[in-house]
Amino acid sequence: MIQLQNINKRYNDITVLKDINLDVKKGELLVIKGVSGSGKSTLLHIIASFMQPSSGAVFVKGENIASLSDYHAAEYRAHTLGYITQNFYLFDALNVTENLLSATLTERHSFAEAEKRITEALKWANIAHKAQQNVATLSGGEKQRVIIARAIINNPDIILCDEPTANLDSKNVENFLEILKTLKAEKKCIIIATHDPIIESAECVDRVLELKEGNFV
Amino acid sequence: MFAKLHFALLLLIRSKKKHTAIFVIATLLIFILASTLFISSSIQNDLYKTLATQADFTLQRYRAGHLVDAPVEWIDTALEIEGVKAATGRVYGEHYYEPKEQHFLIIGIDFYDTQMHQDMQKLLKNLDIEEFLSRKNMIIGSGVKAFFDKYHYFNSYTFRPPERSKEKLYIYDTLPQESNLFSSDVILMDINEARKILGIDADHVTDIILSVPNESERQKVYEKLIISHFDTRIITKEDIKRHYQNLFNYKGGLFLTLYIVTLITFLLLLYQRYTMVTTKERQEIALLRSLGWKIDAIIWLKVGENGIIALFAYLFGVILAYIYVYFLDAPLLQAIFLGSDNLRTEASFTPYVNISDLLLLFALFVIPFLLAIIIPLWRLSIEEISETLR
Asked: CA dist B174 to A113, B150, B184, Å?
């Protein structure tokens, strides 16, 4: 599903990623661990096409997404990718349903179709009871569920999670693990960047790689 | 398309506070410019209507640089010129109400003169001249009416002619709204009454108006009038029109210059506001891109969001300006356009809306408004997402 070939990323004189090579299969749940500043988020951002690598190629379903134009990169993010962040990036002024609407608008859905997808995603993430509540008033765990619902609303093949449990309490971490199991059962390709030992040691995790000073050890 | 517009509306409605200041300033700017346009259009419209009934030439007598009364014989001299169809002597002058430092313009009308008779019938359709002349009556402009009412001259007013007598005239009627701007301070009365009040001799008139219906003969008539008496000044209808146009264009132009300076300042502020966009707004754009929104879709979303503000600001501004000018008679601005030293401040504007002016205003406001926002937003939209979403 995902193939990284000789990925390098430099910021001025600092090399963040050095010759990264990686293969992730469909239905695989990969955890990338490492201390803060080890390059985990940078790697996820490259896979998500949020940034371009300094050199190397990123093949997703056989297509090199590192050389995509803005237009095609947007298409890739809309159809193939679901991104879960550690910070709760949401439209604070909008309610839960309206936040999910923002993700459906990348497709040419009718209102009815968008509404159907939103309802299903909310049920799936177990946050339907807060559908009309303003996201600014939700707890951290609830916000996380909204972000998960938004990430899966277009039924993407790849789910990227950047420190997903950093702002969650232990109960919500457990809930998150349950969600991961479901996603895995749906054959999603999941990559989680984390330094949370609970996630690393979770049963559903297929592989754990450690990133240190820009390379896997 | 509609779903995105719906989303733009949602963002707009839920983040009202963020846009309130821009909306208020934009509405205010449109209000000021639309008020200026409404006032100018109304004045011009009234001016053209009034000028349509004006004489082709006005003959005045000048001595030592001062306007003096002209002898009535000049009327006959003028009538002898080929092409002059009618010549009428006019008697008019200012009446000064010293306690309140107000000027009124007294105009004496010869109601037995055919041309005058017709003009008065045009102005006041139901005027019964016999009834009007049955006693000492006058017809007053709306400004005079308001002034008289304020000082309790409800039915009559007593003038003090120069020979120290008293002339009591009854208020017969008020001039119609259409002629308002140019007749607000006017008092119309029988020519003999006017002579008495203004102290003009029976064999003299203030000036003489001439009708030359054939346009091609006007230049020739003009030349003959010049040589007929060496102490005359001839004013054409075009001179009067040009005088008023210059006056209003000058005032309107001055005001528009100030407006343009303000508009540019506003747009610069707007540009600055979106250049120095907050972290939150930067995150919103990056978030949409991370969800798969294309750059053009984000720009259209912001155009929709701000376009709604601009459209509503425009509509609000224009409606408020209409109410301000045509219902409230444009306090403050009226003084700029009409002067505030006399009764003209009492004038009210006849509703007149020039659609092309409004469309021009729309184009001159909405397009720069959106451009001032789009350029910095576009620059923001092409930044790498990872710069913002960490």
From this structure: 68, 15, 10
